[in-house]
Design a protein that fits this description.
Structural class: alpha+beta
Number of strands: 17
Radius of gyration: 22 Å
Shape: elongated
Distance between the termini: 59 Å
Order of helices and strands: EEHHEEEHHEEEEHEEEEEEHHEEH
Low-confidence stretches: none
Strand content: 25-35%
Mean pLDDT: 88
Helix content: 10-25%
Length: 308
Amino acid sequence: MSQSITTISIEDNNIRLDRYIRRIFPDLKQSTIEKSLRRRLIEVDDCKAKSSDRVYYGQTITIKYLNYIKNTNSDRKYNQELVNILKDNILYEDKYILAVNKPTGVIVQGGIKAKVSISDLLDRIREGKIFKIVHRLDKDTSGVIIFAHNANVARYLMEEFKEQRVKKTYLALTSGIPSKNKGVIDYPLIKKCISGQEKVVVDKYSPQNATTRFSIIARLEQNVAYVKLQPITGRTHQLRAHLACINCPILGDGKYGGKKAFVNGIANKIHLHSYSLSFKLPSNKKVTIIAPLPENFKKSIEVLYPPS
């Protein structure tokens, strides 16, 4: 791990942290500095800091993973491609929110190993605007995701999600067909480290209750079901863990379904799509935002649809 450690001189006393960093590394973009501060790749006296914080004579600035930060800053071609994809997939926009149909394989908010995430580019979708994250989708889940125009709207919407007032509908293909046409999966979940891998598993003693409604849309070839899912709670990997626990893992989800999650002739991608979100805006107007299925998902349905 390469890093840079500097001490604030008397000449730099009482300067903004981001301005000081740019004095040392003038090529770093503001968005890269902000991202690095969020991830604690840049610290002041070994503590988390904000770009607007003032730094003072004698304080120590540590910049970790220096090569990673520089590479992230210079990888502008990939970043612009993702910005263009987000702009092309806008589903809805008003003075409160922006809704996007997130592609599979795109990270909403990344860590050190992430090349770039949507959160790193929220200042580039609309000039002069920096959107706020309200909720997240897994990297391999496609579909509706919403961002707020400002912090007040973000707080309002996060409360709506927390209080389960947002109606969420997902579509999925499962390897295995549920025994009932519709029903409720109501198993508490907990995160555990299994064989060095963090997973969400059913644990009857867990206080993390989790509830998912499901209904079968169609029975397909190779024992695959096309299902509608409505998570009532919003636990991490809830849908993936719940479907795996009824022996119907999501198609392509090897983490939770193992070999059973894969069928012949179908791409090894997780077939889980955030189809719609219904909720009230701060104005009390109710909106429902729908995201079309991605092409790979539609192709799998066509391949697996039984002959008439």
